[in-house]
TrEMBL record:
Protein name: Neuronal membrane glycoprotein M6-a
Keyword presence, Protein biosynthesis: no
Pfam family, one: Myelin_PLP
Transmembrane region(s): 86-108, 129-150, 216-244
Major subcellular site: other
UniProt record similarity statement: Belongs to the myelin proteolipid protein family.
Organism domain of life: Eukaryota
Record keywords: Membrane, Transmembrane, Transmembrane helix
Oligomer and partners: Interacts with OPRM1. Interacts with palmitoyltransferase ZDHHC17/HIP14; the interaction leads to palmitoylation of GPM6A.
Native source species: Lepisosteus oculatus
Amino acid sequence: MQADVYGLRKCYGIFRCFECCIKCLGGIPYASLIATILLYAGVALFCGCGHEALSGTVTILQNYFEVVRSPVDTLDVFTMIDIFKYVIYGVAAAFFVYGILLMVEGFFTTGAIKDLYGDFKITTCGRCVSAWFIMLTYIFMLAWLGVTAFTSLPVFMYFNIWTICQNTTIAEGANLCLDLRQFGIVTIGEEKKVCTGSENFYKMCESNELDLTFHLFIVALAGAGAAVIAMVHYLMVLSANWAYVKDACRMQKYEDIKSKEEQELHDIHSTRSKERLNAYT
């Protein structure tokens, strides 16, 4: 008998634990979670691969195009690359925090928070938070579109160089040169170019830096595109959350008016009953 009671208690405890897990899983904002994972993956690819691709670009410019770093007070291509690296550090940190904030907003507008705090708080606070994040996410989406377009430029440049290197046998009879002045990397007065018949050209094509840097820029471009998709996904989620809290606010006002009218009717009936009782007595 005691064993049966113990077994029933154990089964009841397991059932309660399972019910609690189901309730917790039901309160997770899966749409925001998917968008956050996509955002983190895109930002990680863009920042990590972009940083290494910029380092590879410095190596290629110094070793094969013989570009020398200018003095510290001069804004040259190496200084711009260093600035881009610091921008990458800031982007990684900023969007890590922004992803956490959007996840918190997703949890805030779920049914689990509604059960804990009631309709009033979720509609008054959640509506303002959702509207603010919609505006901010839209701005970030436009910014990432610009980043994607900007990242496609080095991909195009390296694709041209990589294509010439892949067709070295065809290009042997032609006098093709890669002039950095065409890409705006150096000033017009500087002549930094590598021609197909030179030793630096063959060294650059046979090295791992060119192939690795080219593919790193491609992955960074894919990461920027993933971040754009994540921003669009966030916009859909935030718009749905805003519509939800807006409807909840209207429902809350309706319930308040309804309860107020019912209370007034109850007071009127109570007053009339007392008046009839007094008149009878």
